[in-house]
C-alpha cells in the first residue's frame, strides 16, 4: 500500500469489499504496483523536508506572536496575526500569486547571503498607513502608488519590526535584518532564477475591520548554509555554551552586589480576630518563644541562621550563632 494513512471508514470499506468478493487480493496488489509510479515535476523541486518546514513554521509562529504585540502598540488598535501556511514553490509562482501593485520590503539577513522579501497586501498596507497618520484604519479599496512621504513612514515601521524577526530566529541563528529597498511592482524583482525554490510563509493579519495577507519569501540559497540546523535533532540538542573565566568573574561580581532582604524573627504568636480588632497602644502580645531561645534569621523568607539579640553602638543588633542545618538545601 502507499504511505497514506487510511481512515477507519476506508479500512471497513476494504474489508467489506474483500469479504463480499467485490475486490480480490490480486486487485489490491495490482493497485499497489500502479501507485508506485508518481509524476515528479522537476520545475517544482522540493528542497526542504517536512521536518525542516515544521521548524520554519515554529520560528514564524513565534514571529507572528511578537509581531502582533508590536503592531498593536504601534497602530494603537486591535491586531491579530497568525501563520496561514508554509509552502515551498518556484519563485516565478510566488511572483504570479501576488498583486501587480503591492508593498514589497526587500531586506538582507546577515550573516546569511541573499535577499528576503516581505510582501504586504495593499489592503493591509493602506490600513496601517491610515492608522499611523491618525485615521481609523480604513483602506481605500484600490491600490495606488505610495508617495515619498508615505513610503518613508512605512519604511520606518517595518525597520522597527525587524527586531521581532531577529528575536524569533535567535534560537537558530543570530541574524541582523537590514531593509535595503521597498518595491511596489513585483514584475521588477529579478533576485533569483524563476525556477529557484523559495519558502513562502503566509500570515493572516487583521487590523481593526481590515484583513489581508503578509507573505515572507525566503530563497533556498539564503537558507542553504543552515538547512541542517532545521532538523528536529538540532532543536532537541542542549547546546549549552561554557562560560569563560571572564564571564564567570563578571557574574560573581554582580552576584556579590545583589541585595537580599534579611529578617530577624523575634517569635510568633496567635490571637483571635476579635482580640486583634481591639488592640491598642501599650497592649502586650505574647510570643511562643522563650527569652533565652535563639532568634531565627531569614534571608529571602528562608531560615538560614540562628542569632542572639543585643546592642551595637546604641542600636539593636543580632549576633549570628550558627548556620541552620538544611538551610542550603532550600535553594535547590
TrEMBL record:
<keyword id="KW-0969">Cilium</keyword>
<dbReference type="Pfam" id="PF02154">
    <property type="entry name" value="FliM"/>
</dbReference>
<keyword id="KW-0282">Flagellum</keyword>
<protein>
    <recommendedName>
        <fullName>Flagellar motor switch protein FliM</fullName>
    </recommendedName>
</protein>
<keyword id="KW-0966">Cell projection</keyword>
<dbReference type="Pfam" id="PF01052">
    <property type="entry name" value="FliMN_C"/>
</dbReference>
<comment type="similarity">
    <text>Belongs to the FliM family.</text>
</comment>
<feature type="domain" description="Flagellar motor switch protein FliN-like C-terminal">
    <location>
        <begin position="253"/>
        <end position="323"/>
    </location>
</feature>
<dbReference type="InterPro" id="IPR001689">
    <property type="entry name" value="Flag_FliM"/>
</dbReference>
<keyword id="KW-0472">Membrane</keyword>
<dbReference type="InterPro" id="IPR036429">
    <property type="entry name" value="SpoA-like_sf"/>
</dbReference>
<dbReference type="InterPro" id="IPR028976">
    <property type="entry name" value="CheC-like_sf"/>
</dbReference>
<keyword id="KW-0145">Chemotaxis</keyword>
<keyword id="KW-0975">Bacterial flagellum</keyword>
<keyword id="KW-1003">Cell membrane</keyword>
<dbReference type="InterPro" id="IPR001543">
    <property type="entry name" value="FliN-like_C"/>
</dbReference>
<keyword id="KW-0283">Flagellar rotation</keyword>
